[in-house]
Amino acid sequence: MPQTVVKIDNLSKKYSSKSDYAIQNLSFEFNEGEVVGVLGHNGAGKSTTLKCMTGMLPFDKGEIEICGYSLKTNPIEAKQNFGFVSDNHAVFERMTGREYLNFMADIYYVEPNLRDERIQQFQEIFNLGKSINYIINSYSHGMKQKICLMGSLIHQPKLWILDEPLTGLDAKVSMSLRNYILSYRDLGNTVIFSTHNLDIVEKVCTRAIIISNGKLIHDVSLADFKKSNDISFEEFALANIGG
Asked: At residue 128, does pLDDT exceed 90?
């Protein structure tokens, strides 16, 4: 049986500036080998959910476990098991790309020979070129996205969490990212990403969850959906995302 990588139970979060909950009573589990697309309208709670999962945001109610570790009681152990790419690509901009990747490798205790091998592999996948030796402050938005992707993978985490990962990427790198997500899943890892791009959900996801106004309204197996529905998943998602 596949092992549970993420367990979320009755998760709720309210921002102090708002009267309503941003997310409310969310409960689901993600298993190893799953690729999960998180869908919803702008402000539905997608990013809030992912940032609560990573510990970036405190939550008001509920429990989150990553690879069996509670985010509340064992935060370091939980965080060692995932890599995260935020939607704002915040990095240390006075470092070069290579310095940043080595910094991330130091945090996760990646041995020098392994980090060099992985950096070379990511260079081929994400095509950063000579810019890896340039100061990050000189990077374009898309290049910052690439270096964040590479840094989040340097320790080969069991769980890879991405918030709008295709933003700022050209078509070639988007294709490379899509293919890498599939190969990363095939190694038994779990990938969770928020997106407005329904095409990538259909092509790479095993499962999709749809959030509307902070509540889970659909949790769909893509394989089961395709077997039992005459409409496309895109039609179904567009009819249910709302906004």
From this structure: no
